[in-house]
Amino acid sequence: MLEKNTYIFSSFGKAISKLSQMEILMDNREIRDHHLIRQFENNADFKREYSEMCGVEVLICYLDSLVDTAASVELKKLMRELNVSPDSWKPLDAKINVGIDQLENAILTGHLVILHATGSLVLKPKMRQLERSVTSPESETSIQGSSDAFTESVLSNIGILRKHLRSSRLHIQEMDMGEISRRKIAVCYLPGTPSESIAKRILALLSARKNREINSVQDLAKALGQRYWSPVPLFFTSELPEDTSTLLLKGRVVLLLDQLPFALVTPTIISDLWTVDSDKNMSQSIVVTLCTLRIIGILISLLVPGLYVALVSVNPELFRIEMALSVAMSREGVPYPAIIEMILMLIVIEMIVSASIRLPKTVGPTITMVGGIILGQAAVQAQIVSNLLLIVLSATVISNYTFVGTQNALMIRLFKYCNVLLGSIFGVLGILAGLVGTLFYFASITSFQVPFLGFGMRAEGTDE
């Protein structure tokens, strides 16, 4: 038997080098032939070819959109030339009695299914290159860190993550979610850290809802039984493997979702708003300065628009007389109250930001220039808004992008509107009440029993 295995491996040497490593599955149920063809015969890219292998007539089935046809032809030619019976393939790490779903999944994942009179074989040939290569991050920027980014392939992302965290302690468990899409999810964690209990809970929840379709991050949050209406994100998304590996070392759990070029890190804590692990490649004084600037940016974005409305409309007596006169002169001729003025301009700015993101990169800067410069200047000249308001809005928009994470920026931008409304009604006391209410709301948020206002990974509290 050892000599026969050696012969088979030597015969497939050239094929393995050209077609990558081959995975072989075996099955002896005759019903698969008819069921498999009936399942895929209405698909235009489903190909069936009758051939002869080792003197046995076989039917080769595959999806032309996933399989490299040229390499498959070479593989089929090699199989015809080999004087080896199908049973002799069993010693090559064969798996016997595979279920029907697994045989269908083999077709859907780019395998060659070879059906013959006594059973079937499943080979993994060279697949079409449908995945983009590892490139630089597009939505995040690393100043002094690694320049690679995650892709849409779970396997590629696992490889990138292992490249940055070369440890045998890193545990990665995969499962397919959904009856239709069968989307792959990988759960990554380090045993011996607080993430182990969270990871086991996530795996148990996903296993209990294995048939649920996962098409978005919100679907994943629903499957995990977590909050999905809350503006506070359940997952911290990162495109940078360097930051993701550091968060793993800090006791977080990382979820890699197929066709999503981001890592989903949970649980989230408030320090995620201003902490970037790649900053630690610089001196500690610079790190502290950058974190301080981000915290100041959060406060400006959250409070300044509401303070403008409160001080102009409700509590102008808090200004010094010179400042009050300057504000009154800047608003001379403006027909709207401060709250209407602020809300209108905030909505216009949100539309400009959204348009600049959605439009092609060649057109986006033009929209920003037209909206930010021409529209703002025209609004001031038409006395629709005041000069001071444009200064406040400019500082607010800039501060929106000083802290970390797109979802965190959206969260702060949403709470900003609450403070504007409270400031227009109750003045400075309304702003203070809004800030206290925001902190109380943050204190009520937990992710897998980890409080959002916690700065560590000690599990406590209850899920929302």
UniProtKB/TrEMBL annotation:
Claim: Transmembrane helix is one of the keywords in the record: yes
Record GO biological process: spore germination
Transmembrane segments: 286-314, 334-355, 386-405, 417-443
GO cellular component: membrane
Record keywords: Membrane, Transmembrane, Transmembrane helix
Nucleus among keywords: no
Family to which the UniProt record says this protein belongs: Belongs to the GerABKA family.
Protein name, per record: Spore gernimation protein GerA
Lineage: Bacteria, Bacillati, Bacillota, Bacilli, Bacillales
